Amino acid sequence: MKFGWLEITLFSIVLVVVISAIFVRGKNWLEPGFWGVFAIVSSLVMFSVLWLLTFDTLKKISFGSARVPSPTVINHKIGFEYDPDKKRYMPTIGEEELFFGKKWSEQEATQLLTKGKLVIQSRNCMDCHTLLGNGAYFAPDLTKSWLDPKWQTMIQPMIGVATKEETMAKWLQNPEYYGTWQRRMPNLKLTEEEAKAVVGYLKFMSAIDTNGFPDHFGKSAATF
Questions:
Q1: pLDDT tens, 67-105?
Q2: Rounded to whole angstroms, how far apart are CA atoms 131 and 137?
Q3: Domain ranges of the chain
Q4: Which of 46, 104, 129, 189 is the 20 to 30 A CA-CA neighbour of 28?
């Protein structure tokens, strides 16, 4: 059985009232201690609820959960399709494909994603871009950037490499060479390994179920 925020809130309030009523039984409501009991009980109940919700959230955002795939998802084709039942776009995990010419073990993939995340942090990418709703909106949102068909329809022919991941890695190392978007990204002096790690991180991000965020990414004419 699943509980939403409304059920949890109502349950917490009822629990506070019931427990407090037991402890204040026989006391006058004008006594300071009467409301002191409510204050203490409500604080303890809310702390317990938040503690449980925190662990529940950590479980849901861990690798391999329903929303966050395993790092080895980079070994698969990833799509973004509309789900009429859920009424939003959902990432789809397809058949296996090589990523930078190899199949990555879980340990290798985890190390790659960790490095990609650290590279993004070290270059302050969020000063211009957005990931999972965090960051700035001066440059394109990166949450589903792996799925942007412009990599293959516009940039890959300019760079002349065989795969999308190679296209993104080459572009990230020399963005000033390729006339793409109106606002050009500065050269962040990424090494080849750093660029590959960032591409791996972005591919992994595109496979996270973000409740359809960014909104309309899958059908926006401007995006495609």
A1: 999 999 999 999 998 889 988 889 999 999 999 999 999
A2: 10
A3: 5-61, 73-207
A4: 46
Q: What is the pLDDT of residue 130?
A: 92
Which residue is it, tokens 């591919």? 203
CATH class name, domain 73-207: mainly alpha
- Alpha carbons 219 and 150: distance in angstroms, whole number: 14
Distance between first and last Cα of the chain? 39
The C-alpha atoms of residue 146 and residue 173 are separated, in whole angstroms, by 16
**What digits encode the pLDDT tens for the residues 60-70?**
889 989 899 99
Q: How many residues does the chain have?
A: 224
- The answer to whether the CB of 106 falls within 8 A of the CB of 70 is yes
Q: For residues 179 and 93, is the Cβ–Cβ distance under 8 A?
A: no
Question: Is 116 within 8 Å of 198 (Cβ atoms)?
Answer: yes
Question: SS3 for 78?
Answer: strand
- How many helices (H) and strands (E) in the chain? 7, 4
| Buried/exposed code over 184-193 (b: 16+ C-beta within 10 A; e: otherwise) | ebeebebeee
